């Protein structure tokens, strides 16, 4: 799924980050809860806290802007609060999982045709809308076609035309792709919300999800448990979603006990909360990638040795510590770090200034020149990552000047064009997502203008097979090429950071949009 | 004679109205142009990142962004005349967005104004009546300090002390299902954050105006006539000081409404300030212009009332 990363919540998060930068780097204290328990729901929480308990109201804070409220499940949701509400009321065909990056939701099972072009999704047994009517294949077809016909539909369901979405009996639908695509179930995650066929007014229309919408007002909503949910027992009586314009206000609300969960509040708020023993800090790893893009097609970084040199010159540990306030992990220049097929065996690149200098000399890199690194303040830490990177490059005598651009100017004029810039991506549990979107030669968003026939071949054979063993082998090959030659320098991965009251249990621990999966969350007595 | 005076007065009033209306039009033009000058537009912020150039162009056409600026401005201001504020970049009527949030801001700014004037009159009055005494000096230094502190610092300190440390008051505003703040206690901190700097500013004005007036010959005469201090204050001092105080108060209304952008964001208060902050980021011209139009009109109306008070006070004296 394409994700605009959160171009929406920037002003205040950015301000917050500046405030946080003044705090400096200290050692992390307090209660830090990393992912524990590896159950299928992908949840975190205080370990061994007894059996899940039914009841209670969870008050959740999520970021959003009053002027950007979108209630259309198939619209462009810039507000995290809107997306959270929609994800609790409506069900997508599939959702992110822990052991696999695709887990069943409204679709219980799916299987491809032999040529991996046609996928058949079977609707979960007992799935009903909140008004009691059963979900039929017609409802799913109508909803998917509606999604496909939105302006964003083409990128959300690539290769699948509206008329290639068809009912197959009463409880199954088929999607036919114009090319062999083993990733279709993955692409069907999260926005393939199903509404009743011919719903005229989509805002507040009945969904099939774990919670029913009771009220909605200016971005805030109250949702109550759907006792008839086909997906299993929902424990919370209700979820109250509160929209926050700024993460700082959201953190204050949590610290003052006005909300129980501050969703995606960020590392700076977490640092503030570290001294509070009554607050859980939930880290969701691999939430955000902020790679540096080095243009391959032409320009100063076209020589693979130059790109290799910069990858060796960056101090990854320092980047994670300073840019992400320690809330992140070191990465190895391959995107899709949370994919189960991510190759941990590739040697971790570490700082090697001597080799970097040697490579630059061999490549005849002009070290007298100053190179511009373009960046934005779209998400917390992005501009800071550029500044620290530029400082580190002085150690290999490469002069980099950071140019901070306004968001729209960046996306219109710099992105996909400039030789050196920062980018960011919020979907990080799929290697193929990045290969198809940003690295295959003909990818529409080929950020580094990288064309590599061997990579293309590995990618195409990986998506053309449903055989897991073959696929894993191809993906390994793909990652090796990406590691050696792509235009990306991925120094680390930012954690998603939530704050929660002590009583909240089994919170989602997946990165990215996985944070909205609150159906298994419960409150201890 | 009386007829001539009335005519002169109505001509003066008409002139005032015309000037304030012209000011509003200039303001709206500037705001509309300013949002346009910012890089980027609403089409980009309402599409997915992967949107193609074609999709972007289609969206621009749909939002009417490909028309020249004067055409868009004329269309918008033409609609305004009929009460049509246009639609946001996401297709929501701007009047609906403002309708939900404006009453909250009016409530917040109105309470802050009330607190400001009560505080300023009380403190300024006390200071003026006891010039040079410790109380006067304390009020004077305190008012200088609070004037110098920006709203966001005041707001952050209030949250820290009253919500996070002592837990006496809520840290943020939670909206009830009616769209209004869920409890009155949630208004206390935002009102204080807005009012404190303005109390400082107005206290100084009130004190200066009263001090000047206390030295006036007619006041001295009234005191010598043996009138009670209360009578001297209400009948002889305040009327003379009123135009100055009204001008200060009118300025404060503008500052209060401006301050809501910051204060509402810090307290997550559901007013037009938060709407404006978000809309500027999204380059949502219709929402920005609509918000400015409404608050601009309110400020113009307040300035007009201050002018009227001055006219009335001057006329009374003449």
From TrEMBL, chain B:
S-adenosyl-L-methionine listed as a keyword: no
Chain segments annotated as transmembrane: 21-39, 106-129, 141-164, 184-201, 241-267, 287-309
InterPro entries: BPD_transp_1_N, MetI-like, MetI-like_sf
Ranges where the ABC transmembrane type-1 domain occurs: 102-310
Keywords assigned by UniProt, alphabetized: Cell membrane, Membrane, Transmembrane, Transmembrane helix, Transport
Membrane topology reported for the UniProt record: Multi-pass membrane protein
Cellular compartment(s): Cell membrane
Domain of life: Bacteria
Record's keyword annotation contains Transmembrane: yes
Database matches in SUPFAM superfamilies: MetI-like (SSF161098)
Name assigned to this protein: ABC transporter permease
